[in-house]
From TrEMBL:
Keyword Transferase: yes
Stored InterPro entries: Aminotransferase_I/II_large, AON_synthase_class-II, PyrdxlP-dep_Trfase, PyrdxlP-dep_Trfase_major, PyrdxlP-dep_Trfase_small
Domain of life: Bacteria
SUPFAM superfamilies tied to this protein: PLP-dependent transferases
Signal peptide segment: none
GO molecular function: pyridoxal phosphate binding; transaminase activity
Source organism of this protein record: Gemmobacter lutimaris
Protein name: Aminotransferase class I/II-fold pyridoxal phosphate-dependent enzyme
Short name of one Pfam family: Aminotran_1_2
Database matches in PANTHER family: CLASS II AMINOTRANSFERASE/8-AMINO-7-OXONONANOATE SYNTHASE, LD36009P
Residue span, Aminotransferase class I/classII large domain: 82-388
Keyword Transferase attributed: yes
Gene3D superfamilies: Aspartate Aminotransferase, domain 1, Type I PLP-dependent aspartate aminotransferase-like (Major domain)
């Protein structure tokens, strides 16, 4: 999707240094035969960044998640301020009903599943959750996983085999990409959001390999650019070529749509996708994920065919209880009211940052993506924000030229106008300071030349 109209990309003229401008994989010593020693230059580089105040990674929260938090950086130094770094879209993590559900589950079941889903790690709460999430997404059945990552990875790993084909959007979540790579199937990474590329590849594959299984993998709402594909068109295309469509709904389910059913509801295809995968961590206040479908064999196929279900402990009873309680809130008038407040915050933040000269990309969603440009400028700007009371994350490219540095700002329903406007004010001032340093550096360089 095109960038915001009128946005002024920052132009950085600072002298770059290895610490400020290099990428992580620049430091990786691939020629070293000692596997752990390969990472030593990167570790030293990260320590230098930390000393210079240019490392925003691995922050540790020191309180309940909320609009304002207290935290520590990787060196243990204190941070506090407006929180745009935590994913709790409807602000349910400390909701009284959520805390009560977790407490009741701990008293009845204890805190540990104590087994795999394929053996005896399920609880009656887990099976209730599988039925409840299936109804919520309009599917015949669902299978829960201990995390959203394992749900996406496990679904693809179980579904396809060597000789099959996986067509995956280039911007799809890493768990989907990794699941495809681990499956042994032939992986076709296609240009982001290109219906035409998928159609051409499906037509070619069906001509060349008519008996192969084909899985098409995309997201309902992409995390980086917050764009949504036409799900009706993709599902019709897959049926035309006897392919299976898998759509990940981690970024939209619960947070978007009139009743919280996300992009599928907004595009009027609720219950009409072959397979959905999703995560509970962004809106439903717990680790965990799910795979849902109308096919009667998929749940058992995942139990038998996914190593996550057979070799890793199942979701804990506390996780299941929390998600069940969150679903009741999401699917209620209170949930609708929380989504309304969330969308108001999304629109307010996007408008404020655009007015401040930032490049806001994608469609409105609970994560507001801001493209920052060069790494050195992005790191210095982020450090200034953290120092002045704005907690946020910096998404950095791992390799040179691989992507833009981004802010992925995470809104909460409980953010108030004061927090949103305060964050914008801090960002505006930080950008002005950086622009001033850039201008003075450019003038000095011109004078010397």
């Amino acid at each position: 999707m095109a960038a915001s109209a009128g946005a002024r990309p920052m132009i950085c003229t600072l002298d770059t240094t290895e610490v400020a401008s290099a990428t992580a994989m620049d430091q990786f010593d691939a020629g070293c035969v000692a596997l752990m020693d390969r990472w030593q230059p990167m570790a030293e580089w990260y320590e230098q960044r930390l000393k210079q105040g240019l490392d925003a990674s691995c922050k540790a929260n020191a309180c309940r998640i909320g609009p304002r938090v207290v935290a520590r950086d990787r060196a243990g130094r204190g941070l506090s301020g407006i929180n745009m770094a935590s994913q709790d879209f409807l602000s349910l993590a400390s909701h009284p009903k959520i805390l009560a559900a977790a407490s009741a589950a701990a008293r009845r079941y204890g805190v540990h599943s104590a087994g795999t889903a394929m053996q005896m790690g399920l609880t009656t709460l887990t099976t209730m959750l599988e039925d409840r999430i299936a109804r919520f997404v309009g599917m015949g059945q669902a299978t829960v996983f201990p995390s959203g990552w394992t749900a996406g990875f496990g679904a693809i790993r179980a579904l396809v085999r060597p000789g099959d084909h996986v067509l995956v959007d280039a911007h799809a979540r890493e768990c989907l990409q990794d699941g495809a790579a681990a499956s042994g199937a032939r992986v076709h990474q296609l240009p982001h959001g290109s219906y035409e590329a998928i159609a051409r590849r499906l037509e070619r594959l069906r001509d060349e390999d008519p008996q192969a299984g084909i899985l098409v993998v995309t997201e309902a709402l992409f995390a980086m650019e917050q764009g949504a594909p036409d799900l009706h068109a993709l599902q019709s295309l897959c049926r035309r070529y006897a392919a299976t469509l898998l759509v990940d709904v981690a970024n939209d389910l619960g947070a978007l749509g009139p009743t919280g059913r996300g992009v599928c509801e907004m595009q009027d295809i609720h219950g009409g996708i072959d397979i959905l995968t999703g995560s509970f961590s962004k809106t439903f206040a717990a680790n965990g994920g799910f795979v849902a479908s109308n096919h009667p064999a998929l749940r058992l196929a995942l139990r038998v065919g996914s190593s996550v279900q057979g070799c890793s402990n199942a979701m804990s009873p506390l996780q299941a209880a929390v998600v069940l309680a969150a679903l009741e809130i999401v699917d209620s008038e209170e949930g609708a009211e929380r989504r309304t407040r969330l969308m108001q915050n999304i629109e307010r933040l996007r408008e404020g940052l655009q007015d401040a000269g930032f490049e806001v990309t994608g469609a409105p969603g609970a994560v507001v993506t801001v493209r920052l440009g060069r790494l050195e400028c992005a790191r210095r700007l982020t450090a200034d924000m953290l120092a002045h009371g704005a907690l946020l994350n910096l998404t950095e490219p791992l390799t040179p030229g691989s992507a833009h540095a981004l802010w992925r700002l995470k809104l909460l329903a409980d953010h108030g106008a004061d927090e949103v406007d305060g964050f914008v004010a801090i960002a505006r001032e930080a950008k002005a300071r950086l622009d001033d340093v850039n201008a003075r550096t450019a003038a000095l360089q011109y004078a010397v030349a």
